[in-house]
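Q: Given only this backbone (361 positions), what sequence would you predict?
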């Protein structure tokens, strides 16, 4: 690998734009080291004129960088190709960019879901590293990237090895963006994030509002708990040990017991779990689902990579996942134009899965 890693970032949305912007800010002297690739010409125009406008958490920064809709001829092979597209686009992106990956380089999978396995089928397991992002970011207009919450990046390999020198090199590089941790259990981190995203991102898409606004409602919190409970059960069947989110959010504890699922308000433990989700909603109150933004732009939603994975793998193990299945169907209905993201739509989902007594709270 080159002394200074050559990087390509593809998918210049909230996360990809934030990562590319801070990397170019950190390496302004040799801009070709970091190249950003997007299909959106308006993003290229905005960044050419004003740079990456980085806002939100921290001081505002305008970072000059190289962004393009087509890679130039003769581009040096990339040591790291950071995949920050929406999940439905990630496999196509990996196929197109594989010729630009250095022989000992790696794709870095930033997508939510379980996309490392999909990229490994294209490039081979040794060419895949995972990057689990725990900060929120949005892309409200071309060239503007707003970090909506604090958080870091967890890196790892699919096989759990941490002695891969590329991990430390990548960690050093990404410290310009956010605090970085190297994990020996990428699957545990990834599945925990899957449980959270399958609740938060999907319900945010169905409800059409920010996390803070939606988590005020008890029935939305109950939907989230049911989605996470089904995910925890499937993860257990897959042999995955879940990791705490941000070191504190324990998915195994949040999962509802059978007795709690039979309750409406009831026990102190159920009250405590609702309190945790209220706190999450308060902390990340500005978080808006990237899946919702994709739907609003007419793009395919990533729900098959979230709730769809849970439903599919649950079926393999004989585990029922009715709430994830209903949420999956609701997002597809929104994408088809059969309904719209709204409070009434998420109320309808709650009624469909039997969460009726909480609808006024």
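A: Predicted residues:
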């Amino acid at each position: 690998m080159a002394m200074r890693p050559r990087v390509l970032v593809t998918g210049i949305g909230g996360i990809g734009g934030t990562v590319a912007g801070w990397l170019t800010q950190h390496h302004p002297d040799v801009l070709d080291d970091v190249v950003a690739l997007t299909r959106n010409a308006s993003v290229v125009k905005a960044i050419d004129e004003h740079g990456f406008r980085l806002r939100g958490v921290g001081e505002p920064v305008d970072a000059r960088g190289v962004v393009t809709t087509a890679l130039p001829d003769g581009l040096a092979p990339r040591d790291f190709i950071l995949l920050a597209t929406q999940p439905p686009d990630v496999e196509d992106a990996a196929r197109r960019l594989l010729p630009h990956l250095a022989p000992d380089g790696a794709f870095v999978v930033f997508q939510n879901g379980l996309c490392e396995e999909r990229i490994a089928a294209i490039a081979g397991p040794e060419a895949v590293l995972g990057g689990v992002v725990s900060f929120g970011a949005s892309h409200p207009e071309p060239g503007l990237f707003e970090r909506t919450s604090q958080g870091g990046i967890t890196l790892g390999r699919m096989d759990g090895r941490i002695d891969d020198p590329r991990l430390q090199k990548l960690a050093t590089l990404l410290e310009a963006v956010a605090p970085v941790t190297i994990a020996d259990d990428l699957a545990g981190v990834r599945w925990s994030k899957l449980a959270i995203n399958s609740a938060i991102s999907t319900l945010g898409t169905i409800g059409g509002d920010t996390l803070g606004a939606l988590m005020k409602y008890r029935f939305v919190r109950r939907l989230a708990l049911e989605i996470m409970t089904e995910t925890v059960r499937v993860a257990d069947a897959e042999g995955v040990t879940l990791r705490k989110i941000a070191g504190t959010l324990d998915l195994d504890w949040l999962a509802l017991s059978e007795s709690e699922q039979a309750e409406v308000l009831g026990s102190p433990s159920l009250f405590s779990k609702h309190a945790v989700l209220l706190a999450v909603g308060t902390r990340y109150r500005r978080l808006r689902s990237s899946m919702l933004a994709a739907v609003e732009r007419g793009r395919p939603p990533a729900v098959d990579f979230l709730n769809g994975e849970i439903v599919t793998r649950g079926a393999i193990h004989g585990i029922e996942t009715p709430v994830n299945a209903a949420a999956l169907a609701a997002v597809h209905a929104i994408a088809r134009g059969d309904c719209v993201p709204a409070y009434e739509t998420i109320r309808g989902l709650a009624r469909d899965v039997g969460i009726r007594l909480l609808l006024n709270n």
